[in-house]
Amino acid sequence: MLDPSREGGPEVFGARLVHNAPEGRARRLLLVVEEDIAPVPGQFLQLGVGGGGETYLRRPISIADWDGARGLLELLVLPVGKGTGLLASAQPGSIIDCLGPLGRGFDLDAAGPIPVLVGGGIGAAPLVYLARRLAERGCPPLTFLGASDHPGLAGEKSLTALSRGVVLATEDGSRGATGMITEVMLRNPGELEGATAIMACGPRGMLAALKGMARERGIPAYGSLEEHMACGVGACLGCAVPMSRPESGKSYLRVCADGPVFPLEEVILA
Amino acid sequence: MLDPSREGGPEVFGARLVHNAPEGRARRLLLVVEEDIAPVPGQFLQLGVGGGGETYLRRPISIADWDGARGLLELLVLPVGKGTGLLASAQPGSIIDCLGPLGRGFDLDAAGPIPVLVGGGIGAAPLVYLARRLAERGCPPLTFLGASDHPGLAGEKSLTALSRGVVLATEDGSRGATGMITEVMLRNPGELEGATAIMACGPRGMLAALKGMARERGIPAYGSLEEHMACGVGACLGCAVPMSRPESGKSYLRVCADGPVFPLEEVILA
Amino acid sequence: MNENLSIRFGSLELSNPLVAVSGTFGYGFDYEPVIPPEIFGAIVVKGTSLEPWPGNPPPRIVETPAGMLNAIGLENPGVEVLVEEYLPRLAARDVRVIVNVVGKTVEEYVGVARRLQGIEGVDALELNVSCPNVKAGGMSFGTSPAAIDNLVGAVRAATDAPLIVKLTPNVTDIAEVARAAEEAGADAISLINTLLGMAIDVDAGKPVLANVVGGLSGPAVRPVALRCVYQVRAATSLPILGLGGVASAEDVIAFIMAGASAVGIGTALFADPLAPHRILSDLAAYRARYDEWPVGRAHL
Amino acid sequence: MNENLSIRFGSLELSNPLVAVSGTFGYGFDYEPVIPPEIFGAIVVKGTSLEPWPGNPPPRIVETPAGMLNAIGLENPGVEVLVEEYLPRLAARDVRVIVNVVGKTVEEYVGVARRLQGIEGVDALELNVSCPNVKAGGMSFGTSPAAIDNLVGAVRAATDAPLIVKLTPNVTDIAEVARAAEEAGADAISLINTLLGMAIDVDAGKPVLANVVGGLSGPAVRPVALRCVYQVRAATSLPILGLGGVASAEDVIAFIMAGASAVGIGTALFADPLAPHRILSDLAAYRARYDEWPVGRAHL
Ligand SMILES: Cc1cc2nc3c(=O)[nH]c(=O)nc-3n(C[C@H](O)[C@H](O)[C@H](O)COP(=O)(O)OP(=O)(O)OC[C@H]3O[C@@H](n4cnc5c(N)ncnc54)[C@H](O)[C@@H]3O)c2cc1C
Ligand SMILES: Cc1cc2nc3c(=O)[nH]c(=O)nc-3n(C[C@H](O)[C@H](O)[C@H](O)COP(=O)(O)OP(=O)(O)OC[C@H]3O[C@@H](n4cnc5c(N)ncnc54)[C@H](O)[C@@H]3O)c2cc1C
Ligand SMILES: Cc1cc2nc3c(=O)[nH]c(=O)nc-3n(C[C@H](O)[C@H](O)[C@H](O)COP(=O)(O)O)c2cc1C
Ligand SMILES: Cc1cc2nc3c(=O)[nH]c(=O)nc-3n(C[C@H](O)[C@H](O)[C@H](O)COP(=O)(O)O)c2cc1C
Ligand code: FES
Ligand code: FES
What we know:
The complex is a heterotetramer, with two copies of chain A and two copies of chain C.
Chain A: E1 11-23, E2 26-32, E3 44-48, E4 59-62, E5 65-67, E6 72-77, H1 82-88, E7 95-102, E8 115-120, H2 125-136, E9 142-147, H3 156-162, E10 165-170, E11 177-178, H4 181-187, E12 197-201, H5 204-217, E13 221-224, E14 240-247, E15 250-254, E16 261-263
Chain C: E1 7-9, E2 12-14, E3 18-20, E4 42-48, E5 61-64, E6 67-70, H1 79-91, E7 97-101, H2 106-116, E8 124-128, H3 145-158, E9 163-166, H4 174-183, E10 188-191, E11 195-198, E12 200-201, E13 206-207, E14 213-217, H5 222-235, E15 240-242, H6 249-258, E16 262-265, H7 267-271, H8 275-287
Parallel strand pairs in C: 3-4, 3-16, 4-7, 7-8, 8-9, 9-10, 10-15, 15-16
Antiparallel strand pairs in C: 1-2, 5-6, 6-14, 11-14, 12-13
The structure holds flavin-adenine dinucleotide (2 copies), flavin mononucleotide (2 copies) and FE2/S2 (inorganic) cluster (FES) (2 copies).
One flavin mononucleotide (FMN) sits between chains C (21-24, 46-47, 70, 72, 74, 100, 128, 166, 193-194, 217-218, 221, 243-246, 264-268) and B (230, 236, 238).
């Protein structure tokens, strides 16, 4: 199995914002990158958001899409606080301070011929690039996208273009089926027929439900986790997630360096 | 004697930057103010410079000029550090967060018919508005302006227009007479003939020399002082200057509220 | 003023939890008309000694990341001027007044408390125990439980006013000091005073402050202040005036949840004189979330 | 590497004064290629205990104004893994390595020191005395001069390596603790460790950190760190590794002027991984101003 992280390690680079448009409640940012960062789907960047003392640490943001030929980076950013607020309101022309690509992404080899992608809310971000790479390999995914409401859905358009099929759900029914995306999946078990792997990003509750579904079907499930981060590179041990099977005094994995994508069986999602 | 501070006290207001151009090493900023702030010459503003935690406190900046009819405020800002650097690079259109006008300015009634203004470097800033108000009263000043070199001179053009005469000096001789402005004044004692008051702003050493000159001639001398400030309104006692004649346990005056303009005889300038 | 923001701080009913802290709001009038003193639940006036204190030579302040250092040296005109000049002006206004009391000996603290005994408009005394204890060789009163016990006991006997003891965070065990204050008869605890710090002017090759060291305040110290409030809440049953780096309504709620029933604001006034207005309007929205102020909720 | 930046830190000659501090730079490799360990005068590896420690449950970190809180809980794989896995990799690199040592009893500290005795590539030990002293009921070793004396004496007897004692600022009198370390045989003092703080999630109504309290670091604490270095420099004659909030070459010079002969950087690496590069290039310009490093100049 290939190590799903980038060879050569991360770099620090400035990316020039060229486009900033709404995508539901989130913002879709397009940036021009001079360096050939060659990310793996699921990897992320640590962005310096300025703001001086009030946003001292960097913010982890997934690589939503990457066009290596044109050096175009896409991010989907949901403004939930000071840092993402600053990012979401950045003006085209400004330079975004990036560290990355970081972490271990999705293992494309483990996806199999019929991969199923599941995104919850802004969690859809890394799935766009993942779907693109899977499609390039001739295995376009079946994609399930959920959110609380229509403006909470992200990446719908790109994922529709890149997937063999897309199922949408919102909790308030304002778009697609009504309910949580995992409920909708359970209501239509036939949809998962033949699936070779589940690859997901979204709230912990969603990932926990998928872990159960995958276990029942005996297929592997991978999820991208979130945790507060300081370094983003594995040095500070700040982003711990408990291991399902602790070994010789080691009880935690690092979301930034051992993940953010984990086989869900290896982590406790409580 | 009128209290040379504004009736009604300071306000918090946003001023819209409309023009930012070099003036030697300094920047000349023009701002549009909606409020009728009606400042007294020598008063200053406490400007919030953003920059988050790295420039937490406001920065004291003199009101260089004020056009009440058009609501136009002029500032002369020398970028010496983080805060003035941010101000000096502010883009037209941005809103500057102002608290003011603050402090006790120059007492116009004490200027007499032949006031002499002396400015050292960026210290010329408050003299522009002072000269304007004196000229309006029919007593245009005789103005002495000094700096280390030509790019260090500020306000020369405005002061030339508003004064009955201007004497320039630079330490390196790149503009006007060669030497410190107070040396030039001492070399030409006739120039001060008939002067009714000295009103000055600049380095402490310059003010100390002027204090001596004024004492010899028996005329009053007023100087605007600088000190690190937190509140700018008199509440924190951070901006102390030692009194020449301490009284009953009181040894310091507050630059922000008792000044920034003081009769030089009242303060120790060491 | 929104009635719904009222809160009980020991024996005092405050119109809202926000308090202007000592040394940052003068005697209440300097920020007018931008900040009228009435908008606060209470104001604490500058540290007041028996005789006038001149304070330290300048520079007295320096900016630091998300905060500042001050070494004012407790400049104040003495209790007599406070009583003659400032308290009457404050008595004419609708605002609760707490007097911050300083001294270099127990006798000086007691002298100030005596002079203020029965004076109209003094709602409480706040003992600032961060002053150097000259009799004990300069360590501050606030660093030793025994010195606290001695000082608070003596002042307690000299006044009927509610007695708040303001603790310094520059100690190994703040809970122990708070317990000593409680046992000696304090009615409330206020914390934190500033953290001891310094800054160096690298061009001059010497400390920036004439006094060499100074007190750190502002948002930078907020995590330390919250921790102190949390620890003292767990160690005593006294009401707490929590402060240190407060700059938003969210911060006020955080201090309340840590255990404060009144919350001070100081350095943030310098950065943003409109902060109190913003905080009070934001607080109303928070208040509506709870049946009662969530004092100490973070301990559950 | 600029030869002119070299400095003597006790018995160690460092290629430059900048040191990556414990817990922020892993075992030296995580930031590659952005920060190769060689650029530092020395690196201090993560706190190492006799047996593996699991660390605390998440959340372990939270951002604060100009800084952060951490409650990692000293997660580490134990000294055996350090010796087998990390030290050999580091020995292959041209970098000075200091091992930060932790323990809950004196015996545990001694055990780590013994295991490292004579191991190639260990240039010094740094005793982290902020760990809870389980035998003394949980207060940290670093808060009592007697406990320091006892601990340092025991470790001193177990190792030939230069012994640095890293002090906590959460004490009433840091000079007293530093003197105790000096008398017990320490070769150098390192300070500061983090300030005890906390943050509250007001929406959840509970502390953000699973561990409730955490250690404050970053620029916010710099004034406190400088003050501690200044005080300890005046109180002992030991060389000092100064740290806490360092983010620029100017900060490095400030710590040197306060009395440090090596200067650590930690949290600022997270905010700006290029900080070490910038600092080292700016430092060269500062260095040219002086005949020798201006260690302690601010005391003149
Ligand atoms: C690997 C990874 C990838 C991510 N990808 C995306 C993405 O593509 N788009 C997107 O909009 N968001 C993404 N997030 C979440 C995003 O990092 C947080 O929403 C953001 O850090 C919040 O910062 P703030 O300043 O806006 O909020 P605040 O609440 O003000 O942040 C305060 C502190 O908490 C941290 N924090 C708060 N929420 C989170 C969180 N969910 N995860 C990690 N740290 C948090 C912040 O980083 C900061 O240190 C990702 C998170 C991780 C860990
Ligand atoms: C009443 C008054 C009027 C002034 N008018 C002008 C003016 O019209 N134009 C102009 O360019 N400058 C003026 N100054 C000086 C200006 O305030 C300082 O240059 C500025 O504060 C420096 O901030 P900084 O962030 O750029 O520098 P830094 O050195 O990074 O500032 C660090 C801290 O020191 C303080 N500080 C540094 N230098 C001074 C100083 N000279 N006076 C007061 N505080 C200082 C800053 O306010 C800040 O708190 C005036 C000062 C005073 C007191
Ligand atoms: C300029 C200044 C002066 C102060 N003077 C006093 C004082 O006289 N008495 C006192 O108890 N505390 C004094 N303090 C400490 C504050 O009351 C408060 O404890 C500290 O600043 C922390 O709160 P903050 O971060 O909100 O400012 C002073 C603080 C500052 C900044
Ligand atoms: C995430 C993190 C982990 C740390 N781990 C340790 C440790 O294992 N041992 C130790 O002595 N100090 C540890 N520290 C404290 C730092 O070494 C340093 O003393 C402190 O962070 C102040 O420096 P800074 O402001 O430059 O980060 C840690 C700090 C952080 C932020
Ligand atoms: S954020 Fe530092 S180890 Fe993950
Ligand atoms: S700056 Fe606060 S009193 Fe002058």
